[in-house]
Amino acid sequence: MYLYKMKNIVATLLICFALGCNKKQEQLPFLGQPVVRGNDTIYPKIKDFSFIDQDSMIVTNETFKGKIYIADFIFLSCPTICPKMNFELNKVYDVYKNNPKVNYLSHTIDPEHDNIERLKAYRNSLALNQNWHFVTGNKDSIFSIATKSYFTTAYPDAKEPGGLVHGGGLLLIDQNRHIRGVYDGTNPQETNRLIKDIKVLLNE
Description:
Layout: H1 2-18, E1 35-37, E2 40-42, E3 50-53, E4 58-60, E5 68-74, H2 82-96, E6 102-108, H3 116-125, E7 132-136, H4 139-148, E8 154-156, E9 164-166, E10 169-173, E11 179-184, H5 188-203
Parallel strand pairs: 5-6, 6-7
Antiparallel strand pairs: 1-2, 3-4, 3-7, 5-10, 8-9, 10-11
C-alpha cells in the first residue's frame, strides 16, 4: 500500500511538472525610474489629477480605484496618428468592453477646441460605454501630466500638422497607478500585445 501511494505521488508530481505547475505566475514589469529606500524599490505613480469628461463628470484617480486603465493623448482634429490610435484602441475595447475592471482614459491636448460637447459627440459616434472617458481640462495640467506622469510627449508646435505634437503610445496603468506597459498605438501587433498584457495584469 505504501509503495502504491508513493507511485501515485511521484506520478502526480511528474504530471504537474509537465504541465508547468511550478511555473511562476507571469507578471508585467513596472516602468519608470525607481527609487530605492532600504529594502524597498518604489516605482513612480501617476500623480493626482482632476479633469472633466464628456458627461461633465469629474474624473480623478479615484475614478479608477480597483481598476486598470489604458491612457492616451489625442485631439479630435488631429490629421496624423490620432485616427489610427483610436482605431487600434477600439480593438482592445471590443475585447474587454464587458469587463468593468478595464477602463480607458483619453486626454485631449487641444482643450480650446475639444470641449465637452465635442467629446461627447465623438464618444457617441463610436457607441462606447461608460468605461471609456474622454477628458478635457486646463491645457497646462494636461501637458504636465503627460510628460511628468506618463512620460510621453505633448506640446504645441505651429510647424506641425494640427499645431500640436504628442506621443502615439497607449499606456497600461495598474490598480496602484503604476505604468505596466507602453504600446505603439499605430501598430496592430502592439495592439495584440496590449490585449494579452491586460489579461496578465488582471490575473496578477
